[in-house]
Amino acid sequence: MKQANIISDFPRLPEDILQQAAQFQTAILADVSGRRGAMHGRIRPLDSRMSVAGTALTVDVRPGDNLMIHAAIDLAQPGDVLVIDGKGDQTSALLGAIMVAMCKARHISGVVVDGAVRDSIEIQNPDFPVFCMGTNPNGPTKNWAGRIGHPVSAGGVTVSSGDLIVGDADGIVVVERHRISDVLVAAESKVAEEAETIASVRAGKKRGPWLTLALRKAGVLAESETLQ
User: Which positions in this protein are listed as binding substrate (predicted)?
Assistant: First the structure.
């Protein structure tokens, strides 16, 4: 049964990759990923100062039941980020202060919950990032089987164990493992490009022709018209 429902042995991302990824805003990573991979905006950090970069360890649970989350905490390795498919249920919390303390003791990097948490004041500490839909004081049950390590859907995004998870004040971005190298290279270029654009704006340089061309293509302006 364990072999079928639990996959805990998969390649974790090296520390240097995680450190590199942590340098980028989620907005940059989302842009260079083709504007895909960002979880629904319902998944938010409990505190805007929270940020995370780690390897996904996926957890699939029944709504309102956290049995498999307890198992995942025990199986997690340092640097893992628990990504919990709570089915978007907010009728009860899937974790709180005690489980966060357990996560810290295991050196888990953070938790992403498509569901609710509780003890929000106690766990609203930037040193352990918790991303979730919201809060509910109701406690969960611990009765139902689920799966660990299998692909899940969280925040509308498919997540597999071993994927890169990056989160900040804007939300969570998932980068599939096989795309990580290309995405990080593109992110470096994007940061340099945006810095150049901002410098041009501050220097008073005029906008390039793309806006006029886009407005013409959209039918807002005729071919002979300009904004000014």
Answer: 96-99, 118
The CA-atom distances, in angstroms, between 156 and each of 39, 129, 162, 191 are 6, 20, 18, 27
**Contact predicate 76/109, CB 8 Å:** no
Amino acid identity at 174: V
Instruction: Say which amino acid occupies 107.
Output: H
Which residues are annotated as part of the binding site for substrate? 96-99, 118
Type of residue numbered 67? L
Report pLDDT digits (tens) over 84-110: 999 999 999 999 999 999 999 999 999
CATH architecture of 2-178: 3-Layer(bba) Sandwich (3.50)
Say if pTM beats, i.e. exceeds, 0.85: yes
Tokens, residue 42: 């319902």
Gap between the Cα atoms of 91 and 87, Å rounded: 11
Annotated binding-site residue numbers for Mg(2+): 119
DSSP assignment letter at 76: -
Tell me the backbone φ, ψ of residue 2, rounded to 5 degrees. -60, -40
Structure tokens at 26: 């989620």
| Bind-site residues | 96-99, 118-119
